[in-house]
Amino acid sequence: MRTTVGIIGAGPAGLLLARLLHNAGIDSVVLESRDRAYVERRQRAGILEQGTADVLRAAGAGERMDREGLRHDGIELRFDRTRHRVDFPALTGGRSVTVYAQTEVCKDLIALQLREGGPLLFEAEALAVEDAGTDAPRIRFRHEGREDVLECSYVVGCDGFWGVARKAIPAGLTQVFERTYPFGWLGILADVPPSHDELVYARHDRGFALLSMRSPAVSRLYLQVPDGTDPGAWGDEEIWDELERRFETADDWYLQRGPITQKTVTPMRSYVHEPMRHGRLFLAGDAAHIVPPTGAKGLNLAAGDVVTFARALVHQQETGSPELLDAYSQTCLRRVWQAERFSYDMTTLLHRAPGATAFEDRLQLARLERIASSRAAETDLAEAYTGFPFG
After folding, report:
1. What is the pLDDT of residues 156-196, one digit of tens each?
2. Pick from 49, 190, 319, 345: CA 20 to 30 A from residue 24's CA?
3. List 194, 297, 328, 351, catalytic entry
4. 3-state SS track over the chain
């Protein structure tokens, strides 16, 4: 089997890349180790930056997003029983974000790929990327009980942190930057309308809490918990009681409760792998970088990576110049590190570290008060939250 671009992984990055290449007349094959049902139901990010939503629309994958997604023009910061709304359009020249779950993005892109695009092979496990440093890289994979080889002009690894793509870059050429956090997020899905029409980020002496949503009828909420927490150790009423305490305000706002349908714990870490390219192998998304979810950047960074690659490959084919492909890693990493910085800032701003001192608590409140009282500080947050430019 042969193609121009071999894509490992049918998450939003791999699927969006396949769509962008299809629209540019460039053939690709997508290999996904899981079955279609798994890909379409795995819960991940749900906030699309302005740029990501615009790319999906331009790619022909925005119809259902625009119909069912929830446009949000701001977030609420909650601290010391006070509430402060950050107005995105007023601070960024009209930019906003869209609440639309990764599962739905994947469903839309899978349907388009199967109807119009190149091969998308589910239950096709990539075993290794070979000859990445040459002009003829290969992906060795297993599908339908037998091993096969996909010969490519380029390979893009969208296969996550545990995938095989990154392992094909020689260790002597790589540098890794990472940080782990001593807490995680206990997340719940609940069959109850959201208690606020925008996301609420709450800083509390007992720990961080986030009010989010999946739809007008389904709430998504999170609690900061110690790293390694078993989600089953928390009872439903215990979770609602704790959320109520952390979202407490001085006005008459209240938290609506409902049946909890899912409990998970998400660890918190920051990770960057440099470079993001070796020869004809390019890394995208979690294969190259991970951010704590506080800044809502994971899916959006992955989208930025594949947009950068697609533009660079089109440029190479149209002009014969490899300049943009050669600059892929450097171009992506500028955006990656800004997102890492913002995600770290949001995490340290809102989470109470184990053993935090009274001095550190007051510094957090001072930082939040600065955002609430300074248009410049508030604009910096709004610009980062709604998204850094692609490329």
Report:
1. 999 999 999 999 999 999 999 999 999 999 999 999 999 99
2. 49
3. 297
4. CEEEEEEECCCHHHHHHHHHHHHCCCCEEEECCCCHHHHHHCCCCCEECHHHHHHHHHCCCCHHHHHHCEEECEEEEEECCEEEEEEHHHHHCCCCEEECCHHHHHHHHHHHHHHHCCCEECCEEEEEEECCCCCCCEEEEEECCEEEEEEEEEEEECCCCCCCCHHHCCHHHCEEEEEEEEEEEEEEEECCCCCCCCEEEEECCCCCEEEEEEECCEEEEEEEEECCCCHHHCCHHHHHHHHHHHCCCCCCCCCCCCCEEEEEEEEEEEEEEECCEECCEEECHHHCEECCHHHCCHHHHHHHHHHHHHHHHHHHHHHCCCHHHHCHHHHHHHHHHHHHHHHHHHHHHHCCCCCCCHHHHHHHHHHHHHHHHCHHHHHHHHHHHHCCCCC
